[in-house]
Amino acid sequence: MAKTSNRVKLKEKYKVRYHARCLRCGRSRFVFRKFGICRLCFRELAHTGLLPGVKKASW
Fold it and tell me: What GO MF terms are annotated (predicted)?
């Protein structure tokens, strides 16, 4: 609850503050800017082949 109230206060103070969130699940940590999704969703979509041009690396 305290975190939510602090977020509301910060929004009033900085009107242009932006925090990246995953478009698919809403997660706020480790979001790829290029794809707009978090690492977990990225992994799921990459394994199912729904992200074109992405393949598992092997060296």
Answer: metal ion binding; rRNA binding; structural constituent of ribosome
